[in-house]
Amino acid sequence: MLRHLAIKDFAVVRAAELEFGEGMTVISGETGAGKSLLVDALGFLSGLRADSGVVRHGAERAELSAEFSAPSGSPAQAWLADNELDDEGQCQLRRVIRADGGSRAWINGRSVTLSQLADLAGRLVEIHGQHEHQALLARNSQLDLLDAFARNDAERARVRDAARAWSALLHERELLSGQGDVSDRINYLEHQLAELQREDLSPAALEQLVASHRRQAHATGLIQACDAALGQLAGDDTPSLTRQLQQVRADLARQAEHEPRLRDVDGLLDGAAIQIEEALSLLGQVRDDLDGEPLQFDALERKLARVHDLARKHRVPLEGLQEQHDRLAAELDGLRGAGERLLKLNDEIGAARQQWRDAAGALSRTRQRAARALGDTTTALIAELGMGGGRFEIALEPQDGERPDPTGAERVEFLVSANAGQPPRALRKVASGGELARISLAIEVAALGLDAVPTMVFDEVDTGIGGAVAEIVGQKLRALGAQRQVLCVTHLPQVAAQGHAHYRVSKAPVDGMTQSAVEKLGAKQREEELARMLGGVEVSKEAHAAAKRLLANAVLTSCCRRGSDVSRDEAPSVRLRD
User: Fold this and answer.
1) Which string of DSSP letters, residue by residue, matches 372-417?
2) Is 545 helix (H, G, I), strand (E, B) or coil?
């Protein structure tokens, strides 16, 4: 849950720090005071894109930070451990947005990307904006909401994977079928491969061919060099290196008895003599190999020319000829087996289609059960929210299953009847703004709390309602606060009275510049704020009395529902009369 939120130089807020506890916290204030800025701050800490416009005028940067509790075993703590960002149970998100538009983000003091910030925040906080109910009009959003309610992640993944496999096979069949008559191409490939197969094109064979050609091309110079070396090392006409070495060893041997180290010299010379003998042997072999026929060089010349011609023809380097051969051979095999592959593909497509239908059928069954449950729960809730006789249903409309659809075998349509006796019609066609807001809130209350996100933020989702309905909305949010931490920005006193804690946002000119301030309200201040919300500019005694009744009723209703729920902040403001 959210423990601490700090804001500096953000929009019209110079500096603010808020502490949060369990239950429901409400945030109120006059229109334009900046109530939703606290929600915006959490949004940017959740990875939303930002620009320089959010930096307070005259400041260099805006700084936002939030501290959450992430108990051991929670999804957030597991994410921190997996990403090596764990810091002894700490969970701090921080973001700096500069006046030039750039920004940086940190988790537990270590720099991270916005994607990482969003990943972690998605496990910590869920924000519901005042315009979010418009998303309910989109059918794809309706389908996503139903699947979220049904917890269909695994089923949707199986349908999506099956659809991809089926689509890939259909695409392959279309490509093969579109090739038409491939006999000309087969003849061309057979001719090309016949030319390539006349030569040994392996890298080792080509390397040896080039080396042999180079050796034969320089045979004369090589023979002369070998003959000269043989003569100098072991020739008979001039003093050779071998005889000179033997003479040196003999001379030193006669003096070795006077200097023992000369024996070590003799040992080294003996090793040198052995190396020279081995060199002479290898040199002789090389010299003998160079006595080839002139016709051998001509054969090498013609063979190398043929290989170079092939490389130019196929527009590949010499060493790429073998790869070209393999590529053409693979294409030829594919074309020759196209007919067989088409027959096999038809069988594979039939199996893939059935696999998708099985997965889609399982998904449909879970959707049908979830649609009934969500419809019944939402119908009961909209009746409590002032739409007695209204009915909410979810229709599942089958789609053509002859093409793979990664979302399943049906479309979803939310249907509503605002009054008893009227047939349900599409939500996007019949609901007014106020009705849509109430239906949206009912669906959210019915569907929320299914995941492990510990903090839920509502930004003026109570727009368009009032009176007794507003009080019921507040009660629903307070009840939700018994399971999750709830933060609610509201302009309705009936909702604000239901909070376990209350913050007020106000604005005033400071040094010629408008600034917003945030303060936590005590018992008496809460009463005054509710009276202001009830009475407008001039707060009457009647407004104060009504504010007291709202606070008393909120605590009394909560006590009746859960035994006792009176916080230390609330208790002093509750005075019941006989």
Assistant:
1) HHHHHHHHHHHHHTT-TT-EEEEEEEE--TTS--TT-SEEEEEEEE
2) helix
Query: The pTM is what?
Result: 0.59
Q: How is residue 301 written in tokens?
A: 């010349």
Q: Quick: pLDDT tens for 48-73.
A: 888 888 999 889 999 999 999 988 88
Single-letter amino acid code for the residue at 153: D
Cα-based distances in Å from 419 to 379, 383, 416, 469: 12, 10, 9, 16
pLDDT digits over 257-281, tens only? 888 888 888 888 888 888 888 888 8
DSSP string, 180-220: ---HHHHHHHHHHHHHHHTS---HHHHHHHHHHHHHHHTHH
DSSP SS3 for 263: helix
Q: Which amino acid is at 166?
A: W
- Say whether 515 sits in a helix, a strand or coil: strand
- Report how many helices (DSSP H) and strands (DSSP E) the chain contains, helices first: 19, 15
CA gap 170, 13 in Å, rounded: 58
Q: How many angstroms separate the CA atoms of 436 and 416, rounded?
A: 10
Pairing between strand 485-489 and 455-459? parallel
Distance, in Å, from the CA atom of 14 to the CA atom of 35, rounded to the nearest integer, reads 14
Q: Report the residue count for the chain.
A: 578
